[in-house]
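sanity check this:
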Amino acid sequence: MTSQRTHYKTLIDPGDYLSISDFMLPDGTFRRATVEIESVERFRPGRVRKVKGRDGRLVPERNTKIVIGFKGKRKRLVANPTNQQTLSATFGPVIQDWLGKRVVLVVDPDVRLMGRTVGGVRVQPMIATGALTEDPLDQPVDLEREAELASFFEEGAEEPEPPVQSTAKKGV
């Protein structure tokens, strides 16, 4: 008997950008998604981090990311330099040449951020030829659970029961 597995990030505000939680299947594995690039633009972080410059003063951190939108999908991918290099090697360095191209997005559990392994979404280094993924890639929690969570965050609401229960036996 298998139970549905839920990534913890699905319980957090879903935001506008893809994360590994958007690719998790009920059995705990991750799906692949074939998508068509619709837009490419500069990433504008909500808050600019400050880092030490060569002279020791704090300066704004250099932006090295872009945002890629996909046809029929609400969420977009914040593409780091690794994903940018993959797209450039596959379609060339001109972003207008990327528009309308299909790519496959996968979860890479080995992605590192600030010295920690956190997992992330990668563009596969290949030209996608399969059918486009039909689901919106932003509905990882079923609608019933989403409504339950929304009511929890309303003032005075009772905490909902957790939907996932451990199947481990005590004392084993």
Summary: The radius of gyration is 19 Å. DSSP finds two helices and nine strands in the chain. Strands lie at 33-42, 50-52, 58-60, 66-70, 77-79, 102-108, 112-113, 116-117, 120-123.
